[in-house]
């Protein structure tokens, strides 16, 4: 029998234990809040480290690619001196083809630009080994781009930067949420280092990759992009990627031409993305990867002796087009040839991006349009440079569907803010037209294709289940503006851990009412993050709510 005294003692012990647990919880909560207060400064320092490391890596990458371009030109000159030299040249191309194919087979996620892979990993859809991918992407990218394929260095630079961020997180034992933030800032640093455009790197990371404009991500990415750009400029100098200047600006009375060009570029962007998809389908009918890559390098050999200006990324073409000295027929031939070779090169599945080639295609389209307008309306030839800039911006907006990144990128690269209104208009029109035509953003299209091919129905088993915290914002006028937390139908096992409102943190319950401007911190399984983001997009960010 339990005596009355024993019951009292047990009751007192339970009270003391509960008080102790409450003190422990309060202490733990205080520590978590203190960590949150210092977390953004820790991320800022980590962003600087990732940015510096990315800057050195991309600077070396660019140096090797520049050397590869010079070596390729010397080989073409060597091959033009006799039949034996031609045979040697094609043997070298065959060797490059086999080596690149071997690299892609050993590390499949190094294929293509790398941006879809980064997006997929940030969403928890794929998992990569960071150090293997850095080696494969670096070597494969140098061989493919240096070998003359119409590919760009920017996509690989973004993936390399993301892997630097992941490597730092893994070697220092960071949590998955922090790892993904560092991957985002590393990707932005890669773009900044490749283009010399730190602000564009920040916006690209926020708009295209992280899909979140939180203070932590913004500051971390800015620290990474600025430090990466500083390192690259100290190593490679201050020379811009596109070496031309706008000397005359389009009069406001002729801004109708900007709208027409935007429509043309919107259609062009959808056509380009569809052609990429069709070319990939066509080449996949070849049973061996060696055959697909071999066709691309065979075209390099053919173009080397017939039309060498088409080889490589083509960034030097932009300056030549901006001078306005090429005839319309010449511009059209170069545009069509570059379009065909660019889609073939990328669809072959070798490491290399379409970021810079699509800007070159935009410059050619804008230059051709400007030349036609100049001939029809008697405008000054110096205006063609302005149309080249408009073409690059609109093409980027229609193909990638990241209009803000495009505007900031081109503005930074040209250093000219007087064209900001015109490039904003062409970007908006091109984006809208491409969206109305039902085109899919190129990196979403490539990611979906990669997941269908590489992961398929085994997606759940491919990526180890880990918990991740991501942030979301309640938009004013959305369904959840004024609704209770319990109405937020997140995937099973997901939890809203905090709500930030007017700079203060709230601990939410089912009956907590959410309002526009609230920032949510959501804990979920990494395999559920796609479903969770779809819910957020539908009822937290869509401003047209049904009554």
Strand order of the largest sheet: 1-4-2-3
Q: In the CATH classification, which architecture of the largest domain applies?
A: Orthogonal Bundle
Please name the CATH topology of the largest domain.
Answer: Clc chloride channel
Number of helices: 19
Helix share of residues? 55-70%
The description of the largest β-sheet is: 4 strands, antiparallel
The CATH fourth-level homologous superfamily of the largest domain? Clc chloride channel
Provide the residue-averaged pLDDT.
83
CATH class annotation of the largest domain: Mainly Alpha
Strand-and-helix sequence, N→C? HHHHHHHHHHHHHHHHHHEEEEH
Architecture overview:
A hairpin with a 2-residue loop joins β2 and β3. 68% of the residues lie in helices and 4% in strands. It starts with a helix and ends in an 8-residue tail after the last helix. A 4-stranded antiparallel β-sheet has the order 1-4-2-3, covered by helices on one side. It has 3 domains: 200 residues, Clc chloride channel (Orthogonal Bundle); 198 residues, Clc chloride channel; 75 residues, Regulator of K+ conductance, C-terminal domain (Alpha-Beta Plaits, 2-Layer Sandwich). α1 packs parallel to α4 and α11 runs antiparallel to α14. The protein is globular and about 110 Å long. The longest helix has 76 residues. The chain is built from 19 helices and 4 strands. With 547 residues, it is mainly alpha-helical.
